[in-house]
Design brief:
The chain has six helices and three strands. With about 170 residues, the chain is mainly α. It has a single domain, classed as Winged helix-like DNA-binding domain superfamily/Winged helix DNA-binding domain (Arc Repressor Mutant, subunit A, Orthogonal Bundle), CATH 1.10.10. Strands 1-3-2 form a three-stranded antiparallel β-sheet. The longest helix has about 35 residues. The relative contact order is 0.08. This is MarR family transcriptional regulator.
């Protein structure tokens, strides 16, 4: 019996030089692990920064209270139920947080003129002054850290953060 004729080698194409999918996937996984590691470092530093900023406003201010002050600084007076929704806690937890902030002299509650059943929560002048001082300090720190970057690098970083923030739920 004779052997079948040998099959010619498949023609080489442009994709022959491309990175194998498994290698590309491994490279992507390595890069994602690097991002996870950097996010871990950044998260620890961000938590420490929030604790320091909260303590600069008032030694008894907790991180959730700082989050409430951040929302109030950005939006002005807000209904307590809207604060609970924005922070992601139930109404009872927000009520306790607002009572603590009132006791520290950082917020004041008033009846909402548009809805007599609801309360508006607003920062006190003292809280706003201290919050703004910590915000200015945080901005200076960020400015110092990014001052050696080119403007295009900072824009690219902002664009990538925006892309990430809009791609998550």
């Amino acid at each position: 019996m004779s052997e079948p004729p040998a099959q010619p080698d498949p023609p080489r194409t442009a994709t022959s030089n491309a990175v194998e999918p498994s290698l590309r996937d491994a490279s992507l996984q390595d890069a994602i692990r690097d991002v996870e590691r950097q996010f871990g470092i950044m998260t620890v530093k961000a938590r420490k920064s929030i604790q320091d900023r909260a303590a600069a406003i008032h030694p008894g201010l907790q991180p959730m209270g700082f989050r409430v002050l951040t929302i109030l600084a950005q939006s002005g007076p807000v209904q307590q139920v809207a604060l609970a929704h924005e922070v992601g806690v139930d109404k009872a937890a927000m009520s306790r947080a607002v009572k603590q902030l009132e006791a520290l002299g950082l917020v004041a509650r008033t009846a909402d003129p548009a809805d007599g059943r609801a309360h508006l929560v607003a920062m006190t002048g003292r809280a706003a002054e201290r919050y703004n001082a910590t915000q200015s300090h945080a901005r200076r720190v960020l400015q110092d850290r990014l001052s050696t970057w080119d403007a295009e690098e900072v824009r690219r970083f902002a664009d990538l953060l925006d892309r990430l923030n809009h791609s998550t739920g």
